[in-house]
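Hey,
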Amino acid sequence: MDVVPNQNNPTVLDSTTATQKLVGNQMFDIIVTFDNHTLPPYTLPTAAILQLVIEDNLLEWPYKGYLVYKNIYEGLERSKDVATNKSLYYYRMDARDELTIEIKPITPGIDLPPEIWNMKYTMIIYDVEDPKASNITEKVKKVYFWDKRYQQLMDKKLQWSTSTAQGLKSPALATDEERSMKTGLALKQLLTDAGMKEFIDTNPKNWDEGLSKLLFTSPANYSVCDCIESICSKHVSQKGDPCIFNINRSTNKWQLKSLSNLFVDAGKVEPGPLQIEHLFFEDFAAETNSGNTTPYKAPVDERNSPTSDMYKKDIKVAEWNKITTYDFVDMSGIDNTKALISKPIIFYSSKDKQFGLDFTDQEIKKVREDFKSLYTKYLYPDGKPEPIFTLNKSKTEQYNIQPKFAYTDSSNFPDKNSRKKIGMTEILFSGMFLNECINMRLLGSTHRIAGTFVGIDRMFGDDNELDKKLCGQWLVVSVRHVFNHTKYVNDVTAVKVHSYEKIDIKEDID
């Protein structure tokens, strides 16, 4: 097998522009602008940025981070604009100071797809810190920020209900069924009524309506954020698995997608649209060009000629695709024995005044088959990987179980499908995010995004049981973009739910 070629990215070695910064051997345009809605917006010279951290997490929709900048002699707030004789900037400190961040690599001769490579955020500064300095000439300022919409939705309280949101003529005369809405549609309408319609992805593929209905009225002390969390806690995808509510960085819009819809785009024969990057371990065998070449465990685009996709998926760029520092952790045995077990649901129906039991869909062998059909069947090679989902007799003979209890009515797990949230989908979620984990520190690049996949392989080396688990397609859970003076790194956390081939593990033991 040929060594996969690097797609070398030209670099720029110097610049005099105030917003450009040389990091390693790559030039970036970094524009950080403060706006207190009173003074003209102020763009911080990039040379003043000592540290900028942006956190992108699949499981938390608001982007977060912090900025540390030079503030010698309290210069930012004491300095004045010569033309207006007004301060350059001062803080409002009512969580309305805006911080706009734009970052893009400068690559002359190459048009990088902006939806993959450019970063742009509108943040709110929610706290400011004045770190200790040895003297006034070394003073710095540290500001903490998160997504502007997050702050707006935390501050806003609405009198909102699935009953009135539908525009029913006589809500008081309607049945609970009529006053209920599918959870995904309720969430969309809530965001619309909160003034966020422009940030909702209207593509049906990217917004899951949900498997069941819910009657919901916002409590008096609930913000819109609290209502979002409450509705999401009852949402089950139309496929019966967990959904992810987050913001797509390229469109800057909210999506509500099932995990299975992410895996559909991973690629089981060739790299799919969500396999953004391919990484390779830098180890002794690779350095000495020795050892046996093994089959790649993730799909690889091996074309040498430029293609329209070469900077959109399965990206391999010079030094950026090498893994030199990483931590690999298998699923914890304790997590396995407590999370990957049958979770029968005992419920009381207020409508029927009867107790009931949901067991079939929450039985662990059935859930493992669902795990295959929802996730691993979409992975390389050609949907044949085995889920990392170890069972034993204590589980399959139902000695080790975790009964769940639910009181059901129109606003709380009203039907069998909605109760999957505390049974089947809880197991699937644990099987996904408590599974194999890898933490990597990589040479920084803006194309790394949570909610995408990364292929990980070795160039050389013997095939073994470890690499069947370690190599392959990983779901990226979080990415930290860390600009630290003249250094830029990404701290990437990813999970893997499958082995390249079935690993022989006896399951008929106590």
